[in-house]
Write a sequence for this structure.
């Protein structure tokens, strides 16, 4: 496409600049000074894409008017889960500076609504471009014994304990599938303890990318119990692996998951509803197996090549 891409990241002590897979990586500063470096470097580029992945925007638009903010999801309500009030307030305030961007890209309509309502971003500034996945890496495979998988970061807003409690309740109602919980994070001790009290459940801790792909292929059902999802990438990865998702009906999952096609939605916090849905899905094995195929088909709408083309066309119009 004739585009030169530079990627700014923190300097961890390695090479300050190098080429990686066709991308020129520039390393400057640390977690406290990277934002300053972005302001100094942004003016040298035709187009800048600020990745607002951790709430605090880079605001490269202050030195380069051809800047786009990529808001992965809005953190305003999540911060109360993850930070004490004295830390949450300044981060929540900083995130609202996203309203200073004249161009913002979000992955879902739910994130668009949150950006407008919670951050004050103007509707006309926002473009929705769904994130895609690499379908060559996530593929269906052989499924053995009945298996339910919860695989996310162990953060409070991800509610891993809800998944374990729902599974335990489903076991009481007759479910005979196993549960595997995987991922690392703040709640590892609590998760280990809860899994240890739950017959049929296993905690694997952090897993490699390849181990993740194997788990998603083997799973009969994938669980997502998040409080908010700007874009349910893990659900898409499960779907691409031929695995439907049982999710809380929140954020982007309301639009991403179609009941009976690539998963089932229940109301947020309804642990009993999760348990009943698990029982229903596993009792109707013919329908569950049908959803293995339709989940894969649904995921094809969100391929990385489609996403890349949309970003290219959008950014090219600014250069």
């Amino acid at each position: 496409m004739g585009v030169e891409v530079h990627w700014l990241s923190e300097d961890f002590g390695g090479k300050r600049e190098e080429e990686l897979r066709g991308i020129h990586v520039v390393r400057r500063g640390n977690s406290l000074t990277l934002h300053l470096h972005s302001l100094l470097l942004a003016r040298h580029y035709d187009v800048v894409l600020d990745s607002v992945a951790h709430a605090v925007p880079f605001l490269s638009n202050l030195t380069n008017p051809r800047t786009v903010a990529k808001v992965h999801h809005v953190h305003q309500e999540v911060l109360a889960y993850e930070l004490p009030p004295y830390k949450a307030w300044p981060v929540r305030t900083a995130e609202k500076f996203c309203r200073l961007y004249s161009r913002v890209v979000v992955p879902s309509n739910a994130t668009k609504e949150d950006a407008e309502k919670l951050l004050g971003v103007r509707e006309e500034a926002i473009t929705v471009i769904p994130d895609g996945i690499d379908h060559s890496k996530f593929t269906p495979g052989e499924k053995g014994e009945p298996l339910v998988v919860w695989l996310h970061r162990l953060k409070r807003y991800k509610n891993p304990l809800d998944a374990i409690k729902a599974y335990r309740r489903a076991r009481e109602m007759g479910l005979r599938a196993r549960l595997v919980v995987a991922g690392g994070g703040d709640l590892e001790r609590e998760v280990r303890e809860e899994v240890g009290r739950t017959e049929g459940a296993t905690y694997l801790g952090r897993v490699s990318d390849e181990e993740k792909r194997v788990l998603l292929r083997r799973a009969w059902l994938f669980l997502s119990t998040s409080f908010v999802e700007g874009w349910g990438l893990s659900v898409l990865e499960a779907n691409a692996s031929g695995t439907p998702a049982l999710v809380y009906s929140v954020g982007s999952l309301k639009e991403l998951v179609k009941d009976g096609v690539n998963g089932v939605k229940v109301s947020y916090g309804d642990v009993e509803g999760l348990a009943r849905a698990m029982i229903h899905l596993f009792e109707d094995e013919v329908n569950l197996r049908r959803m293995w195929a339709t989940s894969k088909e649904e995921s094809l709408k969100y391929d990385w090549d489609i996403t890349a083309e949309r970003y290219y066309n959008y950014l090219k119009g600014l250069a």
